[in-house]
Structure formats: C-alpha cells, structure tokens
Amino acid sequence: xxxxxxxxxxxxxxxxxxTTVPATLGSTAIGVILDDSAQIDDDALARLFARLDVADxxxxxxxxxxxxVARITGDDPSAAIWQGCRLVEEGVLALLSATxxxxxxxxxxxxxxxxxxHVATPVRSCPxxxxxxxxxxxxxxxxxxxxxPEVHAHALRDMLNTLTWxxxxxxxxxxxxLTVMKNLLEALADDGKPxxxxxxxxxxxxxxxxxxxxxxxxxxxxxxxxxxxxxxxYGRSALxxxxxxxxxxxxxLTRETQWIILQEESVQVPxxxxxxxxxxxxxxxxxxxxxxxxxxxxxxxxxxxxxxxxSVSEAHASVAWAPSSxxxxxxxxxxxxxxxxxxxxxLATSKTTGLSGPIQFDEAGWNNLSRWEIIxxxxxxKNGTLAHKIGSWDAENGLQLKEPLFTRHAVTDRLLRxxxxxxxxxxxxxxxxxxxxxxxxxxxxxxxMAKDHNFRYDIYETPDRKFGVQLDNGSWNxxxxxxLSRHADIAVSDLVISAQREEVVDFTKPYLDYGVxxxxxKPVDKEQxxxxxxxxLDGTVWWSILGAVFxxxxxxxxxxxxxxxxxxxxxxxxxxxxxxxxxxxWFIIGSLMQQGGExxxxxxxxxxxxxxxxxxxxxxxxxxxxxxxxxxxxxxxxIPVRSVQDLAQQAKIKYGTVRDSNLxxxxxxxxxxxxxxxxxxxxxxxxxxxxxxxxxxxGLERVQKxxxxxxxxxxxxxxxxxxxxxxxxxxxxxYKGGYGFAMPRGAPYRDDLSMTILxxxxxxxxxxxxxxxxxxxxxxxxxxATMVETTKVEFVGMAxxxxxxxxxxxxxxxxxxxxxxxxLFVTRPRDTPDRHSPAxxxxxxxxxxxxxx
Length: 853
Fold this sequence. Notes:
Helix content is 40%, strand content 18%. By secondary structure, it is of the alpha/beta class.
C-alpha cells in the first residue's frame, strides 16, 4: 500500500494510539524526529544546540532552545506520525526531522494539518511529492533544507544543452531519480534535443550489496551489446564511488566516455588506472568551516538548528508574542490546531546563509536558492587525479561555464618540469650570466606545444647527461629515470621510442624518423685500379657470361650444320658460305659488343636463338653500364667499408656507440640472436680501449682522429657532417624507428602534445624546422658527404636473364626438329623427280669422257 494512501488511516487512528499530554515543555522546546540513518546521537545533538546558543549574541530565553528527541527505527511512517503527534501535543514550538522520504511525507502532513512549522533535513533527496503543498493556507508549514528535484533536472538540462549527447545511461538508487530524469527528458524534448535513455536502478542497503549489484547490472548491460559512452549518476556518494570503480573495471572510464555525477555529498574519488573525465555537479559550501570529509546532512542539520534559533529569537523580539496552546492530533472535535503563525511566517520569509550555502524557501517550502559548482576530475592512470573547477550553476543565473564541459586541464596553466639531454641540433645549451639557455629543434617544438596548450615549463639538464637505460637493479638512469622518479614531467631530446622504454613511460607521437648509420673520417683519394671495370659485376656473373658465349656459339653452329635450311644445306654455287664454329663465335661476340655480326640467320631456329641472345645482351649491357656509373661515382675515395656488414666482417677499424644509450641496448639484446650483431657486440665489448663513448661529441672526436667508426642516429650524423667536412656517412639506415618526448605513464597531456606534433607535421612546420637546423647553416659542400653502399651485381640478381636465354636455346632446338620434320615430310617429296622421266636420265658417256650421241 502506498504511503500517501495510508496517511488518512494513520491520522484517523492517531487518537487511539496515544493520549493528550498537557503542555509543560515551555516556549523553547523543539521536537526532533530522527531515524537511525541520521547517525547523530543525543549528546551530539545537545552539543549542536548548545554551541549555537553560545555562538549567537541574543538569548531566546534563559534556558535557550531545547531539543526534545524522538527516534524511530528505519523509514517507518506509522512510527513517524506517532512521534510527530506526541511531540506536538507536548507543546514544542516547531518540528525538526531527519528521516527517510516515507517518514518525511507523513510528518509533513502532520505539520500542515496542525499548522506546526516543520524544518526538514531528509537524509537524502526526496521526490517532489513529499511536500504536500499549502493546503488551505497561503503559507507552507514544512521547510525542506534540501533543493527540489526539479532544480536538479533544471541544472542537468542546462548542462546537456551544451553537449551533443543523443543517448545516456542513467544510474540511480532511489525513486526520486526517476522524477528527475522524467523532468529532464521532457524539458530536453521541449528544447528540440530529444534524448534516448537507458535506466539502471541499483538498489542496495550495504556497501557489500552495492558492489555486487552494481557489478551485475553493468555486466548485464555490456552482455546485451550495449556499450554506452554517456552517463549520469544520481544517488548517494557510495553509489558514485562504486560505479567509478566498476567503470574502470569494464573500460567505461576512458577518454571516449563522459560521466556526469550529481551529488550533494563530496565523493572520495578512488585511485583508478583510468584516463577519462568525470564532471561532478555538487553543492557549493560557503563557510570556511566546511571540510571535504563533512557529511552534507550534518551541515543541513546545523543550518536547520541555526535557522530555528534565529527565527525563534526574532519571534521573541516582536511585541507581545507568546506561543499558543499545544495542538492535538485528535479527530473531529478533539483536534486542536495551532493558531499562532508568527514563527511560520518568519521561517517562510527568512533569508540567510549557512554552512550549506544560501537559505531561502520558495512558495512550496523548498530551499532552491542553493548554488552548485561544476568540477572536472581527470583520471591520470597511476598518476592520480586532477580536479579543476570549470563553472557554477544556480537557479537565478543558470549555467555559467568558463569553458566547455569535459575540457582537459592536465596541461593548461601548469608549470611543467622538463628534463633535457644536450644533443645538437635537437637541444643545445648556451651559457649566459643569468644561467644556461636551451635552444634547438626540440625546444622549438616544445615552445609550440606550450603556446597551443597554455602551459609554462622549467627546463633543466639531466644530471648524468644520459638518455636512459635500465640498469641491472631494475632502475633507470638518464632522462627516462628523471621521468620515472617524477623529477620531470617531460623528457625532451632525441629520445628513441623503443619497446623497453614504452613499458615504463609514455611517448608522444614520433616527431621525426629515426635510423642508425655509421660515420667515418673521409679517406684521401685512392689509387686507380686497372681492373676496376670488372667491379660492377660479380665474378660468378662474368664466368656465366663467358659460358653463355661459348654455349650459344656452339648451339648456333649446330643449328647451321643440321638444319635443312642452314648454310650447310644450301645449293652449290660460287657464293656458297658455310657458317663454321669460328663464324658463329664471331657473330655472338659481335652482338655482345653491340657491333652487329655476320652472317644473317635466314632460318627459323637460328633466328629464334639470335633473338633471345640479343635480349640477353640488352639486359647484361644495361645492368653493367648502370652499376659501372655508380662504382665510378663512389670509387674516387678509398672507402675501407661500405656498409655495416663490411664493418662487422673486419677488425682493423674499431667501432662503437654511446654508452647507456638505446642503441647500446639494441646491440646487447640482438647479440643474443647470433650472427652479425653478436660479432659486433663482442667486438665492441672486447675492444681496448673501450669502443663506447660517453657523449656524441666524444664519439665524433674519435672519428676525426681516424680508424674509428661511430654508430649513431642518422639525424645527428647528418647535422655533424654538414659542419665537419672531413666526415662521411656510410651505409643504409638500420634499426629504424622514431623520436618522441617521454612522460610518466598515463600522463593526461600526452594526447594534447601529440596533437601539436601532428598539426606541425601536417602544416609543414616540422620540415621548416629541419631545414633551419640541418641545412641552413651548413659549412660543407654536398660532394661525397654521404657514402651509400654500392654492391656488385651477383648471379642471383641476374639468374632470370640467364633463364630466359636458356629458354631461347630450348626453343631453337625445338624449332630445329620442326624444320627437319617439315623438310622430311613436306618439302623433300615435292622436290624429288620421277625415276622414269627422260629428263632425269643422264646421257651415256664414252670412256674418255665424251658424250655419246
């Protein structure tokens, strides 16, 4: 049975439940009705009244306000009406309640029926229906310290009108949430912004029930294929805290999701490994005595007692005021009404400010003058949270935002500590009387980031001047170590993005490509090699070409010899010509030298073989010519090594890289796979003196002294060879990747900084900076500044053309057999004369040779 339906019955039975007690409490008694959820004992309540009495300047009476406490168990309407009537008949000036919504409803009815002023501080927000209205009076008798649910709906409406939501998941734990959401959806529809909603009611009594129920409801929602990204939470603080924990568990608290939590209580935000933003819509508390750990309900109680104290003081100060006789809950003629309305009028027109904020009641008795603050809380994974107030709301001024909802403030207006490693041209340092000044390619990018996101930075050089590797004890040194220890918010330099580093820090998007090459001291011009013309092709290829010349020559001779249409089968005559072996060899060599050759092949099998040979010659000559040009280009200097493979196969030139760098870690890890990298790592580790250097500058100095190759970033080497003209870069890049800025894991500003990099790349700004720092101030000519690897053409690369030639040989042999068959079965029978033809009978000859006639 509904509470509202049982109210008349309770009022009807109330005279039978108790008897009237004469008024003996005096003119300062306040009836206080508490249920067990109020969590305030008699001593605390007495101290509250006493503290307020001492604090005020004017005494009500010599005794002051006195609380008369009545307690009920749970949200029990029947017990509430019993205690309410009992207190009224004992002669209290007013009622003060802290109960559940069902009990509040019947106490409101008692107050309105008997015209007793009632100040309500419900333990949680209640539906609008708990306020019965004025009845036959122009004044309300119940004054609710909490705002109306319509205020919540109005505030949410103003907030959602600034967003583009089309669907929302509404999570609540008591029925007034439905009222709020119903009013909200209707208002948005009137605004032309209809919103679809999924409702999830989470009923709970204990926090253990709350955790289990919340987990089940969220999991069931996801199992239905619904993964929402917009949420509104309306309920007690424990509900909000638990929902955030479950949202993190089910990946619903990410950068793609948006949460609004309407909560009067302060929510203790749990530590989560999340990256989302939660907007809290909560009451603004105006007194400095408020603590974030204070219960909002206790603040309402203090404000209610203070309000009653001031109102009673004002009533006593008026002329000839005396409270009326006690009212009675009797039925019919036994009912006695409170005819004095002085205190009620004072409460209805009161306007003050308490711990919970402004206090002023509307015509229905709601305290709707409350002010709310809007706070963005950004989750930064393991780095905690960052709270930022972005606006406020009140019924008079509406929504006032300094910036849009869900705006990230992880970088804006912050001072970031930046650790750098000096490495030209990425980061360079200039000493000044005011201290070191850092500049360079990376600093230009950092300045653009600071401009885009309105943050400041304090820059310092990494103490050990290292980029950072993981040490044997598991810790990190260098710039990476500075980030991990939280001494730095960002590490800025030519930091290579690697899998090992990504496990401990986050990186921005790559701002520049990375690759490793080697740099040597430029050698003097070498002596000319008489046999250098053979260098473009591998020895196997040369021997294969000679074999092809001999094989094709022999095959062409055999075709001439056995083809019925070859030179050996032609009719006798004065110009008869036989293509013997020396003739076919001459023809093949002449074709190879692109000089032509005789004789012309006038039979099909010979022409097929010649055509395939000419194709073979075309490819061979083109390949040789192209590679010869490359060899002549790079062969003017005596380059001892032309690639990292050559470097690994020799022991004369020492080579190494920077100690405690990402490249050193790369060689160490790849050495476990064996092969070239194992040889190189063992060579570097076993070198004496050490092949490793502490800085890039030291490595380049060793290169300039000779007999040392320095393996390092291509970008740095390109910059150095443009300024040190005696250096040359060798080989193609290997171990390719990208450079990025490092920051703590889960840093919320990573995506913002990455977006700046992407915009700079898209606009060509990065290219302009590269030109400025790498090319503009170059002091060396481009002649032979970079040595690329030039390799001989091996047989594997030419196997295809030899296969085509072999195919041509096979086709020519097949054509030979076809020619023989044609001649045997077609041409020869037609050309053979009849044995009986007179024309075929030779004339008889005499012994001396004369013809016989």
